[in-house]
Write a structure and sequence with these properties.
15 helices
């Protein structure tokens, strides 16, 4: 299956009614965060099936054609292919394998080169944890991982900033919450609601998967001033009395 075969297969499944639903859901109207994005109207499980079938044999050199395509679902397919290519390279027996390290780095480099085309929250969330997040936890010939993450977080493009934040979910799940805490602090006062949600989500993961005291320490410092949406996401899994306590701190600091 070539990139042209993939595009033809996806275009053949276009659904005009579902297209309108998706374009409303992903805020593609004038002035909205997804302005100008175009959809075929294909449900995600279908795109996943095509991606998984293509992932094994499609050369990485053909993936950019998918990543830069006008249709959202084609870009999604390209990103999913990268995640499916990445997954087997992260098996324990390949952590220190030179060929696996080189291929993981190649996937990460390709992903970063075309990150601006992952231009909606679903495209980021389906790819960043499994590409950048996994890579952060494994050996790499790219020495300055913190520099890569800082460059994403400091980039003016919203989607690169969300990649930096959402990528921290994998380290957190593996008991390494320092990435999430570092970039939550760095991006805490971002102006966009999509980042408020991402930061709160990653803080919630720190409390749920690592150490609740780390979340509480962060809230002690910032609950009074952080965006309300971020706080609500961060405390979602706490008890009702504790949620009320932190929301009261926010109201007092408003």
């Amino acid at each position: 299956m070539t990139e042209s075969d993939i595009i033809d297969a996806l275009c053949a499944m276009a659904d005009a009614q579902q297209r309108q639903v998706l374009m409303r859901f992903f805020k593609t109207g004038r002035g909205e965060y997804g302005e100008g994005d175009d959809f075929l109207g294909i449900r995600v499980p279908t795109t996943r099936q095509i991606s998984k079938a293509a992932a094994r044999d499609l050369p990485l050199t053909e993936v950019p054609t998918l990543l830069t395509h006008r249709y959202h679902e084609v870009r999604l397919c390209g990103l999913l292919i990268l995640t499916y290519r990445m997954k087997p390279l992260c098996r324990a027996r390949l952590h220190h394998d030179a060929a696996a390290i080189a291929e993981r780095d190649a996937i990460v480099s390709l992903y970063l080169d075309y990150a601006d085309w992952a231009n909606n929250w679903d495209l980021v969330d389906v790819s960043a944890p499994w590409i950048i997040g996994q890579w952060l936890m494994l050996p790499s010939a790219i020495a300055d991982k913190e520099g890569v993450m800082d460059a994403l977080a400091d980039n003016p493009v919203l989607w690169r900033q969300r990649i930096a934040m959402v990528s921290t979910s994998q380290p957190t799940r593996q008991g390494r919450p320092e990435y999430a805490l570092r970039y939550a602090e760095r991006l805490l006062f971002h102006p966009h609601d999509l980042m408020h949600k991402a930061v709160g989500w990653m803080l919630r993961e720190v409390g749920s998967r690592c150490d609740l005291s780390l979340l509480r320490d962060f809230l002690t410092r910032y609950a009074a001033t952080m965006p309300r949406t971020t706080l609500r996401y961060a405390i979602e899994h706490l008890s009702e009395p504790e949620r009320q306590h932190w929301m009261a701190q926010r109201k007092a600091g408003a």
